[in-house]
């Protein structure tokens, strides 16, 4: 024959064992909501155990304490779910006040109106049912927010327990059942069965919420990492294409720049051959011609190497970069174009080297973009046309200022400069400064554009100083 107190003891023990298992799994997370959920489940288990021991213990423990613990346990579990939903939790005073109010109301009905046991029973069962429904609602909201099947399972289970208590209350009101928790009718069996299932599903489901969240977080992190890697790959390709486009637009100037040392090499070689043929070259003259040929060959080689390194796709290589040398090397790359436009470079550099940690090719791309914009802005402007480059070390940073003597920028251009596809030039793509700003940010720095107080535009490149 089915023994109802034994069933309550079994359910109570399950409510004690399962939160212990859950806490063993979740304790490493140091989650307040996990601690509250496991504590509440354990308190509910103690209340159910006292209910099963009702024939053998004092009335104050079997009635008000048992029911009070179960009511308070559900409030604590609801508190845990409020933390999970990131909602303001109830104050501790409110929890204790609600628990005390429930016990006082129960005792008043038990002692003052003992001839009406149905009221006492309805007070405890409907109040507990309301807390189960509230827990179910909170779990359902978590499930919807996080697309968590575990939360939906917990919500469904606690909805079943609350429904079982409501059905039992209706059975008592209609005289089908007795207002006694130890009455072994079908409604009691249904309530105990639902409670037993909730003891397991509640704890396992709560663990599942954390595991599903961890899985979702891992997937989101992996997706974000893949997106970031793809963006970096595309950014690198766009930057390389922009470098190639820039050098393509400079091809005539670069050809002229390269033609100078090659022409000098040819002339020196012809003079040497002619002198040897006429037997009019001594050792010193031959040495001088060969020295000129060697110097111009190295000059041509440096120009070619700068072009090759600037356009070839290479992975980022962060290493010490001397900014003073870099800004002068890029100026040499634009020397012919600058001469053609009557633009001069002026460098105001510290007496000691200015070092930063970065990718020299990418930093060169920033400088080249700034130079070319300045040269194009000064075309048609009265002379002198000058680009002044100033390097200033400040605590923790290295500042590069590029100032030109052009017309400056409008307020609209300053506000939108550096945004993708915005350009003040009719044939501009609007990518140069946008790419430059992205490169600066990847180096931990900034790129700002403004008008210089004395006229012209000013670009400030701010890079972190090496530690």
Automatic annotation (TrEMBL):
InterPro entries in the record: HATPase_C_sf, HATPase_dom, His_kinase_dom, HisK_dim/P_dom, HisK_dim/P_sf, Sig_transdc_His_kin-like_C
Enzyme nomenclature, EC number: 2.7.13.3
Gene3D superfamilies: 1.10.287.130, Histidine kinase-like ATPase, C-terminal domain (3.30.565.10)
Catalyses which reaction(s): ATP + protein L-histidine = ADP + protein N-phospho-L-histidine
Annotated Pfam families: HATPase_c, HisKA
Keywords tagged on the record: ATP-binding, Kinase, Membrane, Nucleotide-binding, Phosphoprotein, Transferase, Transmembrane, Transmembrane helix, Two-component regulatory system
Gene Ontology molecular functions: kinase activity
Domain of life: Bacteria
SUPFAM superfamilies reported in the protein's UniProt record: ATPase domain of HSP90 chaperone/DNA topoisomerase II/histidine kinase (SSF55874), Homodimeric domain of signal transducing histidine kinase (SSF47384)
Transmembrane segments: 6-27, 34-54, 60-82, 94-113, 119-140, 152-176, 188-211
Ranges of residues in domain Histidine kinase: 253-467
Full protein name: histidine kinase
Organism: Giesbergeria sinuosa
Taxon lineage: Bacteria, Pseudomonadati, Pseudomonadota, Betaproteobacteria, Burkholderiales
């Amino acid at each position: 024959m089915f023994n109802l107190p034994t069933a309550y003891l079994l359910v109570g023990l399950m409510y004690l064992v399962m939160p212990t298992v859950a806490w063993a799994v979740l304790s490493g997370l140091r989650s307040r909501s996990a601690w509250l959920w496991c504590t509440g489940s354990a308190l509910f288990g103690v209340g159910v155990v006292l209910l099963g021991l009702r024939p053998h213990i004092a009335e104050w423990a079997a009635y008000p304490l048992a029911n009070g613990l179960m009511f308070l346990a559900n409030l604590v579990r609801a508190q845990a779910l409020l933390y999970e939903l990131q909602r303001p939790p109830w104050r501790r005073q409110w929890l204790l006040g609600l628990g005390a109010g429930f016990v006082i109301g129960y005792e008043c009905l038990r002692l003052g109106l003992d001839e009406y046991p149905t009221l006492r029973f309805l007070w405890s069962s409907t109040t507990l049912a309301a807390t189960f429904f509230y827990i179910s609602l909170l779990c359902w909201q978590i499930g919807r927010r996080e697309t968590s099947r575990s939360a939906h399972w917990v919500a469904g289970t606690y909805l079943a327990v609350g429904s079982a208590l409501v059905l039992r209350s209706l059975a008592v009101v209609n005289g089908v059942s007795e207002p006694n928790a130890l009455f072994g009718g079908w409604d009691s069996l249904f309530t105990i069965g639902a409670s037993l299932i909730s003891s397991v599903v509640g704890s396992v489901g709560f663990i599942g919420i954390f595991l599903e969240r961890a899985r979702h977080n891992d997937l989101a992190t992996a997706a974000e990492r893949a997106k970031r890697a793809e963006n970096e790959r595309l950014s690198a390709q766009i930057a390389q294409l922009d470098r190639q486009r820039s050098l393509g637009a400079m091809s005539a100037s670069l050809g002229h720049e390269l033609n100078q040392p090659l022409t000098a090499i040819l002339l020196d070689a012809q003079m040497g051959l002619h002198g040897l043929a006429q037997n009019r070259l001594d050792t010193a003259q031959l040495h001088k011609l060969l020295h000129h040929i060697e110097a111009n060959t190295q000059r041509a080689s440096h120009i070619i190497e700068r072009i090759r390194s600037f356009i070839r796709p290479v992975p980022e290589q962060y290493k010490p970069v001397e900014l003073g040398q870099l800004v002068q090397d890029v100026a040499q790359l634009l020397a012919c174009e600058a001469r053609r436009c009557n633009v001069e470079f002026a460098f105001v550099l510290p007496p000691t080297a200015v070092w930063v940690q970065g990718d020299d090719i990418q930093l060169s791309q920033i400088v080249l973009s700034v130079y070319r914009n300045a040269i194009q802005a000064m075309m048609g402007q009265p002379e002198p046309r000058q680009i002044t480059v100033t390097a200033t070390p400040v605590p923790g940073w290295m500042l590069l200022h590029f100032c030109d003597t052009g017309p400056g920028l409008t307020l609209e251009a300053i506000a939108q400069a550096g945004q993708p596809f915005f350009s003040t030039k009719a044939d501009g793509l609007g990518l140069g400064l946008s790419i430059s700003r992205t490169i600066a940010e990847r180096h931990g720095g900034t790129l700002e554009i403004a008008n210089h107080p004395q006229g012209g535009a000013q670009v400030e490149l701010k890079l972190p100083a090496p530690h």
